[in-house]
Write the C-alpha cells for this entry.
Amino acid sequence: MKQGKPLITFVILAMAAVVALYFAAYIFNAMDDPYRTTQVYSYTAYDSVTVEGLVVREARVLPAQPGILEITRAEGEKVGSGQEIALVYRDSQAQASQVQIEELEMEIQLLDYAISQGTDLDSAARLDEDVLEAVVDLRASYAMGEYTQLRDQVMEVKSSVLKRGYTYGENLTSADLTARRQQLGGELKVLTSQSARATTRVTAPEPGVFSNLVDGYEALLTPESVLQLTPSALQELINHPAGEDSEAMGKLLTSNTWYFAANLPKTAASRLEEGYSATLRFSGELNREVEMTVELIGPTEQEQTLVVFSSNRYLTLTTLLRHQTVELIFSRWSGLRIPKAALHLEEVTEEDPDSSAPPVVVKKLVVYASVNGHAEMREVSIVHEDEDYYVVRPLGTGKKVLRDGDVIITHATGLIDGLTLET
C-alpha cells in the first residue's frame, strides 16, 4: 500500500502538467492569432419593458342546460342573433338521431347535385379535384393539431367522395337517382319529426363571438370595472384566478373592443400618454404585435402604475387569452449587429472627380470585411449602441457595402483597405 502512494502522486502531477501545457498552448495560439473575425447579421434592438396583466372583454355567459350538449360553433366564430350555438339532446338516442338527420340531409343535397349534372368530363375532373383538396385540407389540419374545423372537414371529404360516386361512379340513371331522392326525403321527414321532441336548439341571444372558455373572470372584470381598479386590486386578480365556471356552456363576446390591464413600473408609465397608441407584443394564441390605445393611466402604488390599453382588432384571436405576459415596446432600431471592437474611426482622403478642388481628409466609421483573404473597408453609421455591440446601417454603393452574412474582423493590428490577411 505504501509503494502505491508515490505512484498515485506522480500520475496526478503528470496529469496536472498536461492540463497546464494545454492551456498555455491555447493562450499562446490565441495571442499569436493575427486577427479574429465574426459574422454580421440582421438585428433589431428594442427599448421595451415586460409587463404582466389580464385581458378584459365584454362577455355574456351562456348557462348550461340539462342533457347531452353538442357545441356547433368553433372557438372564435362570429354568430348572429338567433343563430344556433349548440344542440342539447334528451338522451343518447336523440343524439344518434341528429347524426342520421345530418347524413340524410347531406346525401339529399348530393343527389340533387347529381340529378342536375350531365356526363360532362369537365365536371368529373372538377369533382376529382374537390375530393383531393378536401383530403389535403383534412390531413393538414390533423398534422398541425388544429381540430376546431375537423368535423366539418371530415364531412367535406365524405361529401366530395359521395358526390363523385353518385354522379359518375355508380352507373345510376336519372330515374334511379330521383327514386332514391324521394325515399331519403321520406325518411328525413319522419326522423326530423321524432327528433324535434328530444332535441333543443340553443341560439345566440345577441350578436357576438363565441367562446367555450368561461374562466370566472367574466363577472369580476368588465370594461367598466377595469377602469376602477388599483394596482393592488389587479395584482390580487392575477395572483388568485377565479376558476372555470362549470355551470356555463360558453360565452358570447359582445363588443368589438377588448382591453389589456397591466401594472407598469412608474417610470415606464410616465412615458405613455392617454389617448395615444402603444405597441404591445403578445405571445400564445395571438402571437403578434398589436397597436393599442392607452385608454387609462391609473393610480400608482409602490412605484407600480395601473395602465389600461384597448384595441378593436384581432378580437376573434383573443377569446382564449386572459393572464398574459406582454412586451411593451417604446422604440426599436433595426440594422446589422457588430461587436464594438469591430468598429473603427478612420481618416479617409476623398477626391471629387467633377471638381478641381484638392482632396479632403474626412473621418468615417468603418468596419473591415474579410473578403478572399483581404481586408476591405466598409463604411457604416451607428443606429443604436448597447453595452457590447452596435446596431449599424451600411453606407455606400456597389460591392463595398456591408451586408447581412459578411465576415468582419474584430481584432487585428495595422488594418488598412486591401491588406492581405495572414493565415
Observations:
- The mean pLDDT is 83.
- The helical segments are 4-32, 92-116, 121-144, 150-169, 174-196, 231-239, 266-269.
- The first helix runs from residue 4 to 32.
- The first strand starts at residue 36 and ends at 39.
